[in-house]
Structures
1.
Amino acid sequence: MADMKAFRDEIGRWAAGGPDGPGDPGDSGGTARGLAAALGLRTAVLLEGPSDVAAVEALAARHGRDLAAEGVCVVSMGGAMNVARYAGLLGPPGLGLRLTGLCDEGERGFYARGLERAGAPSGGFFVCAADLEDELVRALGPERAEEVVRAEGDLRAWQTFLNQPAQHGRSRQRQLRRFLGTKKGRKIRYGRLLVEALDTERVPSPLSDLLRSL
């Protein structure tokens, strides 16, 4: 039976330059197109990295939604530079899925050009002011975000980080945002934790608007 992980793995192999495109029949229906049909996929959510995936899936879970069961695949592209490639594979030129996702304000133009090159519409993407981590920290407030850091057992690492000369004079929000990216896997873990700590009425609008659109 097809599962979402198998589909994501297939997409990742193709996007990395694998030999089979989305229309190649492959063996036992194991290509991207065969897996998409078996899963009943209708929408692909394109996100820059796995921390964004963790946040989107955590918010969906808080609302009692199973995105995979609804025909929605949440995809980490491994960087904004890959948007044209993933849009070409998953969108109208490839598998014909509806595309949506998040992008950072500074990359809005790059996304628009990449989607245009892929022949995919750009209207379904929601824009974060800096990035999603910044949106989450701002929505929580620095004090509440620091409570999450302490509860997760990262207080010593956080204090060591604050003592670095480069952090002196920066706002607490900027410090927290930078701290989340200083260790491999930390952004992914906190993508989920920060969403789980939010009051439901304070979810950042790009994230809440994305979920409502699915």
2.
Amino acid sequence: MSDWSGRLHRYRFRSEWLLPAPPTVVYAVLERAEAYPRWWPQVREVTQVDDRTGQARFRSWLPYDLTVMVTERTRDPGTGVLEVTLAGDMGGWARWTVRPGHGGTRVVFEQDVEVRKPLLRRLALPGRPLFRLNHALMMRAGRRGLAAWLARG
């Protein structure tokens, strides 16, 4: 694969969420991936495969699903880090970092992935701005959903 092609299909994302709950509570919710569909509308399904692996299906604003195998790489409540590797329609990694923040918790989500789904690869150049917008909308909805979930107590 050429460098140009690799860059075209690769995405690096970073989102920051401020949440009015203690870091230990936020971390406890984030480490339960099987519950994400209850509070994050774009996480349509999570199926546990074993103690460290699950399959997840996502769909945001654009009309396509992404299905990935998610494998735990780091689960460290002491440092507030949850990190996974991704394989399937996207390959790469994602990481949550949970720290104390103003009035509660500061959560940073980072992701470095290569899109592997054939349709998205074919539409990589014209679709890139829409794919980035799609991700931003998904992350905004995730923050709202998690804040509402935490507010329930």
3.
Amino acid sequence: MRVLFVCTGNICRSPLAERYASHWAEQHGTAIEATSVGTHALVGYPMDPDAAEALAALGGTSDGFAARALTTTDARNADLILVMERAHRDRVLATAPAATLRTFTLSEAALIASQVSVRTIRELAIARTRVPQAVDAPDILDPFRQGPATHRRIAEEIAAKVDIVLGMLAPSTTDSPKTPTL
């Protein structure tokens, strides 16, 4: 499964989600290819140091990361697109309208997956109608320039929601410990 995470600058939330999802997949013996982009990316920049530190506390690594901008190809090639804010979803869909059934806010997907048993991205999209309040799930706040404590809190929120979504769509083949808290 190819998962694309999207935020604004692609230096805090989406790379943290990307690298955490890759770590999650490795820990759970699941084949997931996670990538990330930004709608207004700081192209070529490394992860924000506070985001990288929060990621490391969750077991992931920011090594070799460089921010990338959203392209139509990225959206077309992803099986699942998880964005941090509703505005990011709008931008993805303006770039690739055919991605509608594969694009969710991370909070929306986690809320649906926590309330309805889904095993496929198609089932997740269909379940939107059974959990209508999920469309209004709160955005994941941007921790940029908000300090280490805010980055840790946002990292925990992202990790918890990634755990829910990937746990439903890409079941574990191993018994791994739960997500560590910061």
4.
Amino acid sequence: MSANLHPTLPDADDPHFERLTLSRLEALLDVEKSAYTHPWSRGNFIDAMASGYQIQVLLRGDELLGYFVAMQGVDEVHLLNITVAPAYQRQGLAHMLLQALVLWSRSQNAQWLWLEVRVSNARAREIYEKFGFRRVGERKRYYPADMGEREDAVVMSIQL
């Protein structure tokens, strides 16, 4: 029987998570603006940081691949924003972000994870459904849309 006395250390280019800091906020805002027609503002992220929300960025080296923002409740977590940089979409990173979110949520003793997603965002809804989220309702006129209109949101949850 042999043992590997020198385990392989993670490659510096392996994706890893860090809590959002002000030094990474500009890169995050660039991704946010490139990913959405109605992005969160700098103020939204500053407020989320000041409120103590869980904001994790997924990095490869110094490249920001994605992030999530989550708010903890009594026995639940509410996902407020999850984004994969457009250049890195369709590579399984959304699943990686969701896995990290679930692990953190469980460490906070959450029993449920909730989110809203635009009715028109079929790709995101499919990712959530494959991950195990189920549709539980709808919020009328929840999201801003073009020309001053509003778009409905699908409410989804998963039991942890």
